[in-house]
Write a structure and sequence with these properties.
The protein contains 13 helices and 14 strands. The protein is an alpha/beta fold and 340 residues long. It has two domains: 128 residues, NAD(P)-binding Rossmann-like Domain (Rossmann fold, 3-Layer(aba) Sandwich); 147 residues, Dihydrodipicolinate Reductase, domain 2, CATH 3.30.360.10. The structure holds nicotinamide-adenine-dinucleotide (NAD). One of its GO terms (molecular function) is nucleotide binding.
Length: 340
Amino acid sequence: MPGERLKNMNPRPRVLVVGFAGHQGKEYLPIVRESADIVGGVDPAPAAPSLADQWGFPHYDILGEALEKVDFDAAVVTVPHSEHFPVCAKLLTHGRHVIKEKPFAVTEQEARQLIHLAQRADRSVFTLLQRNFDPVFRFAQENLARIGEPYWFSYDYHFNLAHQSTGWRASKEQAMGGVLLDMGYHLIDVLSGMFPEPEPPRVHSAFVHHYEEMRDRRLEDLVSLMCRYPSTGLVGSLRISRHNYEKTEHLCVLGTEGALNIVPGVAVLHSTGGLPLERRTWEGPKTDTVRSMIAHHLGHLDDRYYRQDHIQRQLTVVRTIDGIYQDRSRERNELADRCA
Ligand SMILES: NC(=O)c1ccc[n+]([C@@H]2O[C@H](COP(=O)([O-])OP(=O)(O)OC[C@H]3O[C@@H](n4cnc5c(N)ncnc54)[C@H](O)[C@@H]3O)[C@@H](O)[C@H]2O)c1
């Protein structure tokens, strides 16, 4: 097709940025522009038109208008969780690639629908998860086999926000989940990459609330999970929270022949007994990781193998998280029945 030939002659994809006036959207603008032509932006926020002016691309209030007026290859989507599915489904239905913020989807049903739409349109849906492009996490992944058979992990990820969540994160309808969905998505994805299994792990969870309002809205401020992977017997625990006394991230994996310990900027491979065998440090700015992540996805839009692997892993992540929320909701209903 002549259009196809023309597209292939231009190595810079044409990108629509959806949700570009928000926190994450703004952070991505300069980085996306390094590897793509931003040909338009959609965001209903009052500040969006002047921001689009500043960056020199046309602004649209709604996606439908952009789809009518501008031609593009891919969209970078950074919208509140409740908007992910309708926006991405529409983009795929119109035959556009999607590079999106996490979560890939909130429910297994929506994840499967997106996959169906992507496959029908022969388009990619890539989720932006920066740890997969972080040299320290890559070191851990590449050296995992050196610790023998992993039998235990412990993963902590905490923010130290002094105030209750605000904006869409404080609304059940828009956030569609608390810290498990918002922060925990990254961790479950890291674990799905390290310990790939066709079925999600079995999980026991405790949901905890710092603020009464968040309890009332059923948006957890803290979650503690105990996971068991049935096919290998691997067991592990995660704790994720927004209002800890310090901001921290720490993953430790114990294996039959050693251990891996990862904190931001440093991964260490240990022998059994704790002797450090090899260390990988990385002090580069976060922007470097984000740059390689976005360039990688933009460079693989038409790579069907990469696309398939990515989708399968994201489906497992979504099934794990959705399964935990479903279990909680079942337990709540059973309790309500017993009390009635
Ligand atoms: N990877 C990370 O570390 C990280 C960090 C922060 C946020 N995020 C993710 O980024 C996404 C956005 O979060 P945020 O903190 O930037 O939120 P935000 O509220 O700052 O920005 C969202 C933007 O989307 C716009 N928007 C809402 N509905 C829209 C629609 N239908 N079409 C177009 N624009 C729409 C809003 O006007 C707003 O400008 C979420 O999925 C969140 O989980 C990821």
